[in-house]
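Good day; I would like, with your permission, to put a structural problem before you. What I wish to show you is a protein chain and, alongside it, a tokenised description of its three-dimensional fold. I would ask you to consider whether the tokens describe a fold that such a sequence might reasonably adopt. You will find the record immediately after this paragraph:
***
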Amino acid sequence: MDTATQAPPKPTPAPTPLFVEKRFPLRLSPSITGIRDLYQNGKANRWDPQRDIPWADLDADRYDPAVRLAARWTWSRRLWIEAMGLKETPSLLVRFCVEDQRESDPKFFLTVRGTEEAWHVDCFDRIAGRFGGRMDRPVTAAYEALFNRSLHRRALNAERSLDAYVVTHCAFEDGLELELFRAYRRNAADPVIAAVLDRCIADKERHASFGWLYAEERAPGWTDEERRTITGELVDHMRTVELAGYHCPWLSNAAGTEAAADMVCATAGLGAATADGEAAVLRGYLAAARQKLRSLGIELPEFQHTLLGTA
């Protein structure tokens, strides 16, 4: 084989610095009542994707081939996003458990969140399967790279701020995802897809509430430097993830197939939103999030995008 034509090997990531576990004294008493209530609520409202969703009523054959193909892309992309939680949530749970002096309530809550994310993955895979099967990966390498975010490494990294992680991904990002899912539900004419989205929205309301409640609990103790760190991570997330098309593929030039599929599914009532609809969600959410963040001492700047404008 001509070695000159071989691609260079990918660099090996540096080891992730981890905390040394300090288990004692063991603190399990409730300290953040709102988060403990989310944990109890999640347990009380547990559901079973196989038992509680009427899968036999999802008749993909009544849609034409172009719509079925679009549904495969749209629900596969949702699956790619949701599947990140299968690595991220356990990693975040470990971080809360090994970092000294962290409260018990997030540890309890994250055990439930991980289960709910597994149910969402199950449902999204079933929907894609009904329409012809899950798509294994994005069309372009550039868009695929956006999904390899290694959040599990960030969550575990002892040199990175856990509070900044929670604000960015558990409050801000999960809150945006919740609002997008509400938009999908408003445009879900199929009763089975509507039932899935109703279950997911109820779960995601708890997920986003966890992030904001924890941020509110921690904010009084943040230093100016910690607030600058949190602001920097939020800005980086918006510019390199959200405005790059992670949740809204029409924002990315590399995601033409995925963006077109969402438009078809929106027209067919299969639980998607148009680009204009998602743009309205983004603008509205950013305005609301800025107010919440300002109350925590975080000033989120405006962002510019050629397709979204100023938001």
